[in-house]
Amino acid sequence: MVTMRQALALIATASLAAAAVVAVVFQDNITRFNINPRIPYQIYTPPPPPAYGARGAWVLWPSQAGAGLADVFYVHSSTFSARRHWNAPLNAKKADALLRQVAAPNEAGPFMGLGAVYAPRYRQATLFANFTHKYDGLAARELAYGDIEAAFEVFLKERGSERPFLLVGYGQGGLHVLGLLQYRIAKDDALRTRLAAAYVIGEPAPMSIFDNRLAAIPPCRTPGDIRCVVSYIDLEPAFDDDRRRFRDRSLVWSDDKTLAPLPASPLLCVNPLIWTLNEQPVSAEMHIGAASATGLRMGVTPPAIAKAIGAQCVNGILTVDRPQQKFLRRKHWFGDQWRVQDFNLFYHDLTADATRRVQNLDRALEQEALVLAPIEQAVDLKVSPINKAPE
Questions:
Q1: pLDDT band at residue 23 using 50, 70 and 90 as cut-offs
Q2: If you average pLDDT over residues 104-133, what whole number do you get?
Q3: Per-residue pLDDT tens over the stretch 186-243
Q4: Which are the contacts of 72, defined by CB distance < 8 A and separation ≥ 6?
Q5: What secondary structure, in 3-state letters, does 279-321 show?
Q6: Alpha carbon distance 308, 325 (integer Å)
Q7: Closest C-alpha among 274, 271, 272, 279 to residue 314
Q8: Cα gap 218→226, rounded to integer Å
Q9: Separation CA 47–CA 144 (nearest Å)
Q10: pTM of the shown model
């Protein structure tokens, strides 16, 4: 016979089990609710802006300007999540530690050997902004872009104007790189000439922007292309919800530096195993190497884990094989899949590609210097400056 105490214990156990099941089933909704800032942006006071003349405003600053093959401007992914702020204060300790120990080593690491790397701290939009296209989330990202554009102006003053350069952005940073391409690079022929490539990783790059806003900076369609954009969002097959979210809800920069939603748009997907727009599956035999640089000192190259994954662009998303190595798998419990990952599946592939594109740009600049610019318009001379030979 079951006593009252035993019955209550059974009920409590069943209730806890049911609560655990509900938590697992609705874990993503619970996470989004918990990281949603509670203050409307209209009455929100953003943190003070960074002063990019001070080294403390930069997470990466080269010890020697002009070193290596190229200059690199890197914009990190979202490392900040809090209910009190839409934009991260620069002194947010947890976010900065995540940036220095995880994001920068794995995201900027592949490009460190190319030359001088500049990486600004900025008032990044909080992680929740990625899940809303309402005013608050858009305004937070627009404010963050203003910081990035200010940092980019300092970068331009510091770097050698004749040197090749790369733009690199992950996640939210990729969105801001698209803004720089549209507002600064596409409108400046001298800058565009020196751009080896722009890397927009983990952030949708709608194909439609290359028909108008970025007509002067096309997608990288082959490994030999320069002055172009590489973009992909790598996800394992299990992440269907995130796949749909990226496909259905991308953003574009308007002429007035505001963001506008662009629903259900085809996305640029350059397969980083072969660096083309080919949608055929590519085997792991082409994989140069994944790596985890988490916790390593910047500039230290982690060992390559070669032939770990195959990949295929499917409807604008790079579908990757589930790695056998557990530490290379994207986590999926309570929003971990949205946070900065402590590995880079294409770490060494990116290094090889960026090096090749910089070298290709150098060769193109040498050839272009030998060719005179074409005469765009004929000029009629009323009086010839040359005496005609007598008849």
A1: very low
A2: 96
A3: 999 999 999 999 999 999 999 999 999 999 999 999 999 999 999 999 999 988 888 8
A4: 108, 111, 114, 115, 116, 117, 118, 165, 166, 168
A5: CCCECHHHCCCEECCCCCCCCCCCCCECCCCCEEEECCEEEEC
A6: 8
A7: 279
A8: 9
A9: 11
A10: 0.89
